[in-house]
Every structure is written in structure tokens, then in C-alpha cells.
Write a structure and sequence with these properties.
The chain is of the alpha/beta class. It has one domain: Alpha-Beta Complex (Conserved hypothetical protein from pyrococcus furiosus pfu- 392566-001, ParB domain), CATH 3.90.1530. Strand 6 and strand 7 form a beta hairpin. Helix 2 crosses helix 3. The two termini are about 25 Å apart.
Length: about 120
């Protein structure tokens, strides 16, 4: 398995820190595939291949990875930030990862995509 050093996004003054939930990547990917912003294997579909590749080069240089931020909309997952990071890590074997979630959807994300073996932060 690939080792990842995760870093949290520090919001600007006045904005709340989003909770972190450890998710099952396959479950999130299945829900995200319903979105028009889906990034398929290799950075395709709605992806920007240069961003996908740029993240891969940074990751291979052992740079820490900022946790992606997601939101639930209807029956789909949308990324507020980090869709190319998520896609690259998914494509390279990461099965679980932390995500930031909007505070009002944290419990829904935990119940639908969360992993009971990992603690969550609020």
C-alpha cells in the first residue's frame, strides 16, 4: 500500500474547519461517477489531465497530500476541492482516505461512506 502523509486544509479566518471522515474510496467513487465532474481512470472524462499528472509528480516527490473536501448532493458526491488528487490516489491503489465534509452532511457521509475502524475528527 502507498504511504500518504495527510494534511488538513486550514480555512481562512471566519470559516469553520470541516470535519474529517475516513471513507471507503470505492463507495465514494461509485457515487461520484453520477456527477458531471467525475474524473475517470487516468484523469479522463471531466478531468484535466495536466492536473492529474501534476499531482502524480508531486506525490512521487513525497509531498504531503492535502485532504480533499466533498459534499453530498442528492444521490451524488461532489468535490469542493481535490477531485484530481482523489482520482490519482484511487487509480494507484488507495482504498481508504480521509476527506473533509461540510458540517451539515458529516453524519450522512459517515453512515454512507465512512469506515467504522477509523476515528473521525470534528
Amino acid at each position: 500500500m502507498i504511504g500518504v502523509e495527510w494534511i488538513t486544509r486550514i480555512p481562512p479566518p471566519g470559516e469553520a474547519l470541516f470535519p474529517v471522515v475516513w471513507i471507503d474510496v470505492a463507495k465514494v467513487d461509485l457515487a461520484w461517477a453520477k456527477s458531471a465532474n467525475y474524473v475517470s481512470k487516468g484523469g479522463g472524462c471531466a478531468g484535466i489531465p495536466a492536473r492529474y499528472e501534476l499531482f502524480g509528480h508531486g506525490f512521487e516527490s513525497r509531498k504531503p497530500v492535502q485532504i480533499a473536501s466533498i459534499e453530498l448532493l442528492n444521490d451524488s458526491v461532489e468535490f469542493l476541492d481535490g477531485r484530481h488528487r482523489f482520482a490519482w490516489l484511487r487509480d494507484h491503489g488507495i482504498a481508504i482516505m480521509p476527506v473533509h465534509v461540510t458540517p451539515d452532511k458529516a453524519e450522512m457521509v459517515k453512515s454512507g461512506f465512512g469506515l467504522p475502524i477509523h476515528a473521525t475528527q470534528g
